[in-house]
Amino acid sequence: MNKSTAASFPWAGTHPWDVDILVIGGGPAGLAAVTRLRWMKSCSPTPLSVVLVNSGPIGGLARLGNSILTGPALAFPAGELVRRLEQDLETYPAPVLDQKVVEIRKTKDLFTTTMEDGSVITSVSVILTCGMLDLRNIHQFWQKGVTATFGNRANIRAILKRELTAHRNPVILGGPHLLQLLQTIQNLNLDTRLLIQGSGHHNQGNTIYGELVRIEPSGQGLTLHLGSGAPPLETDRLILEFNSLELHRSPLPLGLDMDGIGYLAPNATPGLYHGGDCGGPPFSAVVALGEGAKAGLEAYRYTHQFKYNRPAPLFAYYGDDSVTDENIDQDDFHLHPDLIPARLLDRCPSARVQELWDVLDGATSIKDLESKGVGDNVQIHDQILTLLEKRAITFCPQRDRI
Length: 402
Ligand SMILES: Cc1cc2nc3c(=O)[nH]c(=O)nc-3n(C[C@H](O)[C@H](O)[C@H](O)COP(=O)(O)OP(=O)(O)OC[C@H]3O[C@@H](n4cnc5c(N)ncnc54)[C@H](O)[C@@H]3O)c2cc1C
Fold this sequence. Notes:
Blueprint: E1 19-24, H1 28-38, E2 50-53, E3 67-68, E4 75-76, H2 80-91, E5 96-97, E6 101-107, E7 110-115, E8 120-128, E9 146-149, H3 153-166, E10 171-174, H4 182-188, E11 193-197, E12 202-204, E13 207-210, E14 212-218, E15 221-226, E16 233-235, E17 238-241, H5 242-247, E18 272-274, H6 285-308, E19 340-343, H7 354-359, H8 366-371, H9 377-389, E20 393-396
Parallel strand pairs: 1-2, 1-8, 2-5, 8-18, 9-17, 10-11, 10-17, 11-13
Antiparallel strand pairs: 3-4, 6-7, 7-8, 12-13, 14-15, 15-16, 19-20
The site of flavin-adenine dinucleotide has 40 residues, from α1, β3 and α6.
């Protein structure tokens, strides 16, 4: 999987905005959105640039357990669903930033998204697919010091009993509802510490309010690093208590409206879309895939209209009422000479179009390319169509036209 930094985007700094569509969160919802954006049904829809920002593993929570989508006929063992989704991301890559988003603001027409390291990305659309939890590197210790409660009430009790009696200084990570189990937990192991996931940091006895930001191995156990300068916790077992995590989401990035239990509230901000667990229950991979794909298509339509000032031709997803007797023979994509072609992938996908690829700089319009002698109008048009078919370029209008 390719990992990038904001500075390595091929289009960074040369356009009125850094990327057309920013997807936040790389679980099933985010991967469905990115794939849908990079792989439109035919070559006609112009590729839009997309970047994925993800603080956890590619695949999110679906990396940890089985993913039964609708029933036994559509069931994937742990990691298999993610492996399938990753295949498409390998074929139609998008830059992936290993970062946490801390703030999203919309000023005038553009979104400004701030990362934990202070870097900023501007975009036309944002798709939020950041799940119920910032996973960080939890997956690296899954079943190697980290486990979870799942299933029904009886399962939760059985797992807590098994884990808390077998370990010396366990930590349970959960939401505020975990305090409803305090008596049960203390009866099983008085030394258990509860880590209530949230921003800031304070302690109340064995209950710690803070944010888990990284896990490291330490001797036979784990060191849990917390945010806000809180001292690390040493533990021989970390238990994720999913019931309480589901009942209250840890803080979303600043600038977003939340519902009463911390999930993303329905919003009417043009250009902001979401899918999957971050929108609240039901928490399910199949819902996340569907909502992520829908968010991808919606963001495509919105951004296409914004960028090119005409509707996206998405026949078979939305219908296209611009198809008429007069234009039925024409391509959907009309190459406007003022468009500025910018690279989307790192490598030119075809030796035949290398010459054009070499001069694409994200600042030179098609008209300028022609005057530089890259080829005549027809040659440039054909080569650009080849690059479009390979999803290798995107376009921006000229900066002074925004
Ligand atoms: C053990 C287990 C078994 C499961 N079994 C099933 C099943 O059989 N069937 C089923 O349908 N579902 C199942 N689920 C649920 C399913 O996995 C989730 O509903 C699904 O993964 C949600 O997808 P998502 O993309 O919305 O979020 P996630 O998979 O949670 O991915 C979100 C990603 O966003 C990242 N992120 C969070 N905040 C930020 C931020 N601020 N900036 C950047 N990145 C951020 C996270 O670190 C994570 O990588 C199971 C879950 C678990 C844990």
